[in-house]
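Co-fold these.
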Amino acid sequence: MKELLGKYPASKEYLLDILHEVQNAEPRHYLTRDALCAVAHHVNVPLSEVVSTATFYSMYSLAPRGRHIVRICESPPCQLVGADTLVDLLCAELGVAVGQTTEDGAFTLETTSCLGVCGVAPAMMIDEELYGNLTKEKILGALADVRRRDAAS
Amino acid sequence: MPRARGHVLIAVNDEALLAGARDVAAALAERLADAGLAEEFRVIETGDVGIAGRGVVLVIYPDGVRYGRVAVADVAEIVSEHLLKGRPVERLRLGPAPTRPTGLVRRQARIVLENCGRIDPESLDEAIASGAYEAIAKLLETQAQPADVVAEVKRSGLRGRGGAGFPTGLKWSFTGPGDVKYIVCNADEGEPGTFKDRLILEGDPHRLLEGMMIAGYAVGASKGYVYVRGEYGLSIRRLQQAIDAARGAGLLGEHVLESPFAFDVEIKQGAGAYVCGEETSLIESIEGKRGYPRIKPPYPGAVGLWGRPTVVNNVETLANVPPIVLRGAAWFRGFGTEGSPGTKVYTILGHVRNPGLIEVEMGTPLRTILEEYGGGVRDGKRFKAALLGGAAGAIVGEAGLDVPMDFDGPKEFAAVLGSGAILVLDEDASIVELLHSILRFFRHESCGQCAPCRGGTAALVEISERIRSGSGTPSDLERLVSVAAAMQGASLCPLGQSPILPIRTALGVFREEFSARIASPSAAVR
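Predicted complex below.
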């Protein structure tokens, strides 16, 4: 943590960048209370201000999430080509509602606004990886791949 | 290095990467080496070639043959048949554009995208060979007066490509006095269906950097920020790489090209908030705060980032600046219309045969864009409507097809032209569902700072839900309009002022469809 914070000048200007990096370093993809305190200390602002900023942006989470985050696009271009049914499919397959984490802690299901890859709509991301032209088979295949990779490591 | 006899361009944007572009590029290098062609054909990884939804796309030069959905297994055939024997692999060819004398890419008037898909965006040398940094070099060499640069941009008639089309030169001239000023590039491209700025960032990042440098020179700023959406990982990496390369070459820093002019650029990444596309929210976000919009005036030109005079321009706007400076305002006015000179970059999507990125002259009607570039409505279906400009956009029907698209067209068009998203709907699509999806988007993205927007966006979804589920009443249609109109008058920023446009245009053209849903609940799908 110290090393990570040391890369940034002690200025609020870098708050968003720092929060991104701190969250990425946490295996459960969230901002722990300890992390928020350390960040507040580093940029020299009250904890309340750091929390205020962190809770505004949808990419930050203050609660633990799954090891993998599934983000399916719910913008009009994706909805037009059937994203709605795919959200239902994901909910059923993972056994969670949007915003929830699977019992085994593997996946958190989230919706996202436009990912900017509308040429291959409907689209989703699992962690940093993009998946386009989604179909039922593709989604199930992608989830299976991630599970397999997890089991292997 | 021996001169290459030909080039193989491979598009490496997010879409192509997810289709396996890296593996194809590796296989290509290997096969070329095996065939002894490694010296003769150069493989260039490029940003985007204006084709979306076709997987891994290759363009072979000098013959200009374009291949789509290329898999690793196809590479051997392309190398041995086409590159070695000169016989294009017909089954992979993208048609019909290359076989027509008036091909897809060739008919576009390219200013902003002139290097996208032609150069390796990760190579500063290639960018420079294609004219990058010539314009700023000219200004520094001739010690041009900053006021003359502003005047030239004013004369060019360039208008902002982010949304409303405010004249860029005029905006620059409003920048207040001071020792410290900032140039902020708005790359928080959040309008659903829009990804033009992403492809400019990924295809020709040096163009953007040069545009920012010129803006800095013109208004007296020495620091620039590019605020990029947090979701745009590849854009951020490419731009950072370009910034590092430019710094290394003395193009950014204390002495740009060994002159007294100082300019440097830093990337700021967003974290998922649509409202940050609004310029004052974006400034708040750079300062490390919640992205709440500020009350205007004062405008950023007077009181912007950290209270300093700040110019906020969109990616596409800034990308237009270097050619204007280099070739002159009169040249730029040779494109487009009197009131809206130049070109416009669009993303055309939805139910079209060839979804993708295009650049055409301002004033080109939607019908031309749809039929000649988009290849028409897919699956032989009929055109029903288009959503122009994303969620904060206008829904047009058949009657909108022949209206010239520029800032002086109908007001509906002017407001939404900037983002450049064209979402095409075929005859089977439901406008009721489209509007519902748009309203849900606004509810999700309302930042919650001001009550009219916070409450209004929720109320709109509630009313729309009633209508689509078949339990609405005729007065609900008026209620949508009156709530949105109240929001337009009372909201702090453009987000709350936006829902009226899709609502009014949807009801204007497709009122009967809404009425039918109300009259007959069984018409409700899903």
